[in-house]
Amino acid sequence: MKYCNKINIGKISGVFGVKGELKLFHYSGERERIAGMKELFLHSDEGMRRMEVESLRYSGKTPILKLAGTDDRNAAESYIGAEVFVLFDRLVPPEEGRYYVADLIGLRVEDERGEYLGDAAEIIDNPAHDILRVTSADGDWMLPMVDVFVLSVDTEAGRIEVRVPDGLIPEKRSTEKRADAGLTGDGTGAGCAEMNREGTKKT
Fold it and tell me: What is the CATH classification number for the domain harbouring 31?
């Protein structure tokens, strides 16, 4: 199942107190992205459920949510482990030069000559720098997400321009550009992975 108009911002990690409040494990941890949030969607084995947000406050660095109709600890405990989604267009736009991870997944990856190298499949968190995993017909390969290798990102055109060190890409690879390269489930190239996930990356 795909949720092309929603992005996964975190998950319910526990309850807080006895009045039905919930702890949110927020993937990005940046408060301004969820400030003023009025609704969210909880995804669990039972499917996706829309919930109204009565209040959002913080205990230290942890967001504390109060959802409408959840007024005691027992009711709140039933949401532990649920993934939290919000509508993509409700998120605060990232700063210039930064992109939501979901915007990058599915973009086609090209070299400086415009040669198709594969599709962006995953952004891997790494202490030194993030890693871009690229998938192609001849196998996956990894590229450090640093300025010397990632030259430009154009989400509207659906492409990432890269400079690849010698020997990094599998020797036998397809150079044919697919007609649907860079497009995702809804045909927009906007990063509709099975579960869009929040997080921004600087390039």
Answer: 2.40.30.60
CA distance 155 to 159: 6
Strand partners, 51: 40
Indicate whether 60 and 133 sit together in one domain.
no
Residue 199 has pLDDT above 60, yes or no: no
Q: Determine the Cα–Cα distance for residues 11 and 81; give it in Å rounded to an integer.
A: 6
Residue finishing a domain among 90, 111, 144: 90
Tokens 């968190």, residue? 125
Per-residue CA distances from 178 to 115, 116, 119 (Å): 11, 9, 10
Instruction: Answer whether residue 34 is part of any domain.
Output: yes
What per-residue string of b and e applies to 3-34 under the rule 16 or more CB within 10 Å gives b?
bbebbbbbbbbebbeeebbbbbebbbeeeebb
Residues in the chain: 203
- What is the pTM assigned to this prediction? 0.61
